[in-house]
Amino acid sequence: MKPLIVVNREDDWPHEIPGVAVMSAKSYLTGEAANGAQYSPVVNLCRCTRTDDAGFYVSLLAEARGHHPVPTAKALEELRTPANVAAVREVEALAARAASGWRSFEVDAYFGADPAGENDLLCRQLFRLAGAPLLRATFRRRGAEWRLHALRALSPSDVPSRLRPALLRAATSYITGQPVARRPRSQQPSIAILYTPEAPLPPSNPAALEQFMRAGHALGLRVEIIDRHAIDRLGEFDALFMRDTTFLDHYTYLFAQRAAALGLVVIDHPDSILQCNNKVYLNELLARPAGGAEAARRRLLHRRAQGALGGRARAAGAAPAREVGADHRAGVPADRLRLARHGDGPARAFRLQVLHGAGPLAGA
Fold this sequence. Notes:
By secondary structure, the chain is an alpha/beta fold.
């Protein structure tokens, strides 16, 4: 497979690395050539500050296409709140040694290398922590301790011209070229079940939870139901089973991130939450060959085309169904989610994903 660098605009990367292709984000997201080609890895150097930026979708669709993106969509999401607390503390200790006598300290890392050549060990650890090729980390001193204040993914346009040679060297070296230590296990394996009784549309009712607990006890497990306020107790368990409906930007995702960083077995895993909560990712995944499995017919539409939704659905033999998404948290009643049926024929699934105007295809 051929390595690929994806940037917001092709002139953002005027350099040449033998055997490496360069493509714009728009071409990668919408072009037929990118969809059918075999690239690996996809080095995503797009600007990404939000989960509806083109850069986020480049990594997300690269995962669906099997293109092994760097960074992953999960890594971009976790830049705001890194889940690996032990790795953060290690980075802070390195920053304290590098920034002795200062009150704040900022360092850029290009593929794990310091372009100034002064803090390569710190930059390698930042790359391992965050997974983004181009990073800016800001540290601030609080009393006698240094703390990681912010992590931001950079794009090539953020790199000054004097540091472009260092960027090219680091990228060439990377392209051509620690999980957290588990705590000692308790004598009896243990599992935490996350459950909030007052949550709307819970995946399990009390009777099901009771059966889970009985099954765990029969297997010799210590089983405990915990609520959303028990995130700091996750280190006491060997596994986490979430029985609250999961979303991004939600306490369930924070629980999954923290548990995975601690080395617990996690259901739902943060990768699954990130991918399965995003219908653009699922649409792309369902378009891949799947061993003969037949998927529901789907259309991916920009929000300016919402007026055509009903007509397109009826043409496909279905009426558009209301999907309960993030507003689920606001208490959307269960009867708002229904199977679409049109005419006398069998009910047929018809997925319509509407992209907001700020999304990756806003100009399409």
